[in-house]
Amino acid sequence: MKQPDKLILVGVISSAHGIKGEVMIRSLTANPRTVIALPLVNQTDAKIELKFIRQNPKGDLICKVNNIDNRNDAESLKGTELFCLRSDMPDPAEEEFYIEDLKDLTVVGLDLAPVGRISGIFNFGAGDIIEICFTDNKTELFPFRKEIFPEITKGYVIFIAPAC
User: Fold this and answer.
1) 26-59 pLDDT, tens digit each
2) pTM, two decimal places
3) Is 35 helix (H, G, I), strand (E, B) or coil?
4) pLDDT bucket at 92, cuts 50 / 70 / 90
5) Do domains 7-87 and 99-156 have the same CATH topology?
6) CATH topology for 7-87?
7) For residue range 107-125, what is the model confidence (pLDDT) as tens digits?
8) Buried b / exposed e across 123-143, counting CB within 10 Å, b at 16+?
9) In sequence order, which residues have a C-beta less than 8 Å from that of residue 62 and are 6 or more positions away?
10) Could you tell me the residue ranges of all domains in the chain?
11) Going by C-beta distance under 8 Å and a sequence separation of 6 or more, which residues neighbour residue 91?
12) Residues facing residue 29 across a β-bridge
């Protein structure tokens, strides 16, 4: 059975901009303008089409959305998350990956014996945090660092427990 394609969060409409229905978009991609080239959908799977106007000095994108022509309609889009299908994203370079690809990966020790699985990935502003659900059903959070997670493959993640 083929696994359904995953949705990747690539941006958020942060506010209305001006009176002609433009919006500000906070891009979550390495290059903010990448969002414009992707086929986007919202939380309800409705297609979102963006027309790029300009990028502000902070890196936010100012765009027109579909047929939004006034500020009131643009304001109603505030907080809208913009997604694309994982299959529409370019393949990551070597030693790179998408956070979405890490979810539910098996976590193994240096001996390659399973110790758990990745149950969540968070970022509270100071870097990515990996939540591991261990085989005894206990969960713990770890900073996403090379010394703790030295190898990531498509099938598993090697985990070295940090010394306390």
Assistant:
1) 998 888 999 999 999 998 889 999 999 999 999 9
2) 0.72
3) helix
4) confident
5) no
6) Elongation Factor Tu (Ef-tu); domain 3 (2.40.30)
7) 999 999 999 999 999 988 7
8) eeeeeeebbbbeeeeeeeebe
9) 17, 22, 23, 24, 25, 53, 54, 55, 56
10) 7-87, 99-156
11) none
12) none
3-state secondary structure 76-144: CCCCCEEEEEHHHCCCCCCCCCCHHHHCCCEEECCCCCEEEEEEEEEECCCCEEEEEEECCCCEEEEEC
Residues paired with 7 in a beta bridge: 85
Give the residue-averaged pLDDT of 11-27.
95
| CATH top-level class of 99-156 | mainly beta
Q: Are 60 and 88 in contact (CB under 8 A)?
A: no
Indicate the helix (H) or strand (E) that contains 16.
strand 7-17
The pair of three-digit structure tokens given for residue 9, joined into one six-digit string: 């969060």
